[in-house]
Amino acid sequence: MSAKPIPGRMTAAAEGEVVVLLIGMRINHFRGVRHWAPVLAAMPRMLRELNKDKSRGLLGHTLLFGSPRTYYVVQYWESKEKLYAYATAPDMFHRKAWAMINRKEKKSRQHVGLWHETYIVPEGGYESVYADMPAYGLAAATGTLPIEGRGRRAAERLAHRSPAK
Question: Pairing mode, if any, of strands 6-12 and 144-146?
Answer without folding.
Answer: antiparallel
